[in-house]
Design brief:
This protein is an alpha/beta fold and 319 residues long. The protein has a domain of 214 residues: NAD(P)-binding Rossmann-like Domain (Rossmann fold, 3-Layer(aba) Sandwich), CATH 3.40.50.720. It binds NADP nicotinamide-adenine-dinucleotide phosphate. NADP nicotinamide-adenine-dinucleotide phosphate binds next to helix 1 and strand 6.
Length: 319
């Protein structure tokens, strides 16, 4: 029997990305020398340094995928910038420092393309994270996430640690948060289409429908996370995204969902609602230098799978 040499602790293991990693590992991408431990806030409140320390003492991980975060869509961010800043700063400092103190060999944390400077040139790349203020709608979340990169550099320079981060674009898939008020745009739209279909009403999309986004399917992101954990040796972060040519408008995303859900009603755009950042086009050139052959699931296929999951799991989905 192969000896287990890697104990991989996944914080945020019950969220959208954590569940996707769990599925990919269970479906055959896990290796015999790896033990995977998925934890949620029930195992430890990571805003508490003592609970975080106890979690690390309990599981003694050699590797960590750090996903736990206060996460939300545009409108929740606008309402709660201070909470996003404080919660995420505490979680990240507790996790990274416990990992350092307990001798974890490698940590992969999760940033996001929505933390990049608002005023920038496109496409955005990994060198531009700190080049100016983020969009005002999510400054709390953005600055807290940027500080992970600062800490990773610090742990590397001062202690020789291999702590790094990935930068995904908008993620979606099964187990997302489908809450219309607080969730991200795509799961929120899926939920709205579900309800509009039930009531026979129009689908109201918030904003003009013109902003553009690169969406990544959670199961594709999960496969990339495994590669980063095993193969990627830089401390500098890496953008995990579909190509620039795969960016879609919110209108196109809504149309893809309507088609997947067989919704035949009208699409209405409520232009009194904020659009958020117009675009945040990211370059995946660095990823492509490492993994030129990686195949992303086509957007419409991934949307279809997510809608099918939501329809089948409506009663228990987060909403
Ligand atoms: N979703 C996106 O579009 C997107 C895009 C780019 C980057 N990201 C990043 O990807 C990572 C995962 O996001 P996600 O969408 O999977 O998030 P999610 O579905 O909202 O899940 C969040 C996870 O964090 C855990 N968590 C939250 N607060 C915690 C606390 N105080 N102590 C311990 N655990 C806590 C939750 O545990 P419970 O289930 O117990 O609450 C849950 O497992 C995050 O770092 C996020 O910033 C997400």
């Amino acid at each position: 029997m192969t000896e287990v040499t890697k104990r991989i602790l996944v914080t945020g293991g019950t969220g959208l990305v954590g569940r996707a990693i769990e599925k990919v590992v269970a479906d055959g991408e896990g290796r015999p020398d790896e033990e995977w431990i998925f934890v949620s806030s029930r195992d430890a409140d990571l805003t508490s340094s003592s609970e975080t320390k106890a979690l690390f003492e309990r599981h003694k991980p050699t590797h960590v995928i750090h996903l736990a975060a206060m996460v939300g869509g545009l409108f929740k961010n606008i309402r709660s910038n201070l909470d996003f800043w404080r919660t995420n700063i505490h979680i990240n400092d507790n996790v990274l420092h416990s990992a350092h103190e307990s001798g974890v060999q490698k940590v992969v944390s999760c940033l996001s393309t929505c933390i990049f400077p608002d005023k920038t040139t496109y496409p955005i790349d990994e060198t531009m994270i700190h080049n100016g203020p983020p969009h005002s709608s999510n400054f709390g979340y953005s600055y807290a996430k940027r500080m992970i990169d600062v800490q990773n550099r610090g742990y590397s320079e001062q202690h020789g640690r291999r702590f790094t981060a990935v930068i995904p674009t908008n993620v979606f898939g099964p187990h997302d948060n489908f809450n219309i008020e607080d969730g991200h745009v795509l799961p929120g739209l899926i939920h709205k289409v579900y309800l509009a279909k039930q009531s026979g009403s129009a689908l109201t999309v918030w904003g003009t429908g013109k902003p553009r986004r690169q969406f990544i399917y959670s199961l594709d992101l999960a496969r990339l996370f495994l590669w980063v954990l095993r193969e990627y040796d830089e401390v500098e972060p890496i953008i995990l995204s579909v190509g620039e040519e795969d960016e879609v408008s919110i209108r196109e995303a809504a149309e893809a969902i309507a088609e997947a859900m067989e919704f035949r009603g009208e699409l209405v755009f409520d232009t009194t609602k904020s659009d958020g950042q117009f675009k945040k086009t990211a370059s995946n050139a660095k990823l492509r230098r490492y993994l030129p052959e990686f195949q992303f699931t086509p957007f419409r296929k991934a949307v279809k799978e997510t809608c099918t999951w939501f329809n089948a799991n409506y009663a228990n989905a987060r909403k």
